Amino acid sequence: MDIYLLEAIINRILLGGVLALLALGLNLIFGVIDVVWIAYADIVMCGMYALYFLYAEYGVPLPVACLIAIIGVSILGVVVHLLIIAPVLNSPPLNQLLATGGLLFFLQSFATLLFGTDFRNIGVRLPILEFATMYISFARLIAFMVGLIGAVVLYLFLKRTYIGTAIRAIAQDRDIVGLMGVDQRRIYLVTSAIGGALAGLAACLLALQYDVHPFIGNTFGPVIFMICVLGGLGNMIGGFAASFIISQIIAIGGYYSNTEWSYVLAFTFFIVLMFIRPRGLFAR
Amino acid sequence: MTFNRVLTLIGLAILIALPTFIPPYFLHLVIQILLWAFIYTAWALMGRFGFVSFGHGAFMGIGAYVPALLWNYYDLTPWIGIPLSLGISVLLAIIIGYPCFRLKVVGHYFALVTLALSQVVLLSLVAARDVTGGSLGFTQKTVGHSWYALQFPDKGYFYGIAVVLWLIGLLAWQRIDHGISREALEAISEDEDAAAAVGINVLREKLRVTVISAALTALGGAIYGQYIMYLNPETVSGIAVSLQIVFASIAGGVYSLLGPTVGSLLTLSLTEGLRVWFGANFIGAANTIYGILLVLCIIFMPQGIVGTIEGIKARRRRMAKPSAAPSNVRT
Questions:
Q1: How many folded domains does chain A comprise?
Q2: What is the ipTM metric for this complex?
Q3: Three-class SS string for chain A?
């Protein structure tokens, strides 16, 4: 096998880790609250800006800055839920989609207003690892590891804690859970906070590799939706697997042609698969 | 002659006389409002029945790019290029629509499939940068005033074309609204299986309205391209344009004839007004306010502006005449 192709594949598996984290967050919110957050990638953008300003402008140490960014985005998740999602909880699904779409417009333009359209980099230079004549980005390796750890922690949380069990129960049947004495509103808030925290974590990992600008959400937002739908909306493990499938298609397509065509390939693959398996790859 | 008809005639007279007395900048604004109103109306043909497509950016992009590319590379007149682009859009609408409707891809899933479609067209336009100029955009060869090339430096001509297009859009909307299709499509949007059970050909009805909507959107894109004479993948296709189409239509109201037009009028005047007011230092200010309004609109007025006003009127009328049965109230 071609060494460059292998390098592209490995680097993409590593990036797949971050996408998987975002897919988990979005799937969690969808599974529990039954609302698709179109603006999820733009909430990540907010986290990236928070990290940029804390670390690069105000000189807060990186780990502390990351922690503050994660907590901040988590709070943002709760605020979004209270202000935008809660009022439309009983509206038709499409109105919910459109309300979060309005949020997308708002976040992108507000970021443009506040920060301009400049590309900003947090300026952390991580070494590039050389491994058997292949170059692998250290930033991506860290992102991948942290992404995996995040996924495992989320899994344990959902499986082992009381509130995690309640979250899983609500995803299965939201009417019965109320009868069992679970406060739905509280669970929704916790879920939004966790979804936000995952977005914040992903923001920290992405900020290590990419410049932040107001429209960065548009570059990976659609890909995350594609991943979630392919895995089956609400299906965590499906989403996790789909993020690696999609990132491989993009890697291999990008290797033989350029990045845009590889995305065209990935989106076309998505459309075709929606016709073959309309409820996602792993639907039973 | 009824009051409404008189109002319509007065409105048309003002429309015809408009270019003689307003300055070019406002004429430019009015042309844009009319062209976008046409595209929003085309979207609302589908949107009002709950088939929310995020893929209309794709049809608009094809409509704008195909005639322009054919003109620049093969000197083919837009009179052939535009029908060709319409054909391609219709074909694409069928390729995506047929399996979607056949396999009952609805709601979220339909929205996301069409979202992917608009990404495919946007990224293809960017990726084929040797031909389309990519993100740098694309400019048609200019030949001055020419019917053959459909290029008019005088805005008056495009104003006329825009008015005609807009009327075509309204006519299409009304034809569907008054036809048997509307009943069928409303039944489908309520419950597909039940609609099929009473003998409605679900697939055909949905496909027909999709094809009409896609073709009109492509036509709007083509004329918009001929008018602006500069195409950029981001401004004529892709998610941003698709979302703009969806939101402006919904803000105006998709359940009424003039709803999308009001959406276009309000959003464009708001954007322009805020831009003039804030100046170039505050890029994004206009869209920030726009975003907030959209969210508020969807939370508090899911029927759109025109729909809400009509709802209030209908309620008043009912209160005045308690015996009258509630008619024309759609949810």
A1: 1
A2: 0.81
A3: CCHHHHHHHHHHHHHHHHHHHHHHHHHHHHHHHCCCCCCHHHHHHHHHHHHHHHHHHCCCCHHHHHHHHHHHHHHHHHHHHHHHHHHHCCCCHHHHHHHHHHHHHHHHHHHHHHHCCCCECCCCCCCEEEECCEEEEHHHHHHHHHHHHHHHHHHHHHHHCHHHHHHHHHHHCHHHHHHCCCCHHHHHHHHHHHHHHHHHHHHHHHHCCCCECCCHHHHHHHHHHHHHHHHCCCCHHHHHHHHHHHHHHHHHHHHHCCHHHHHHHHHHHHHHHHHHCCCCCCCC
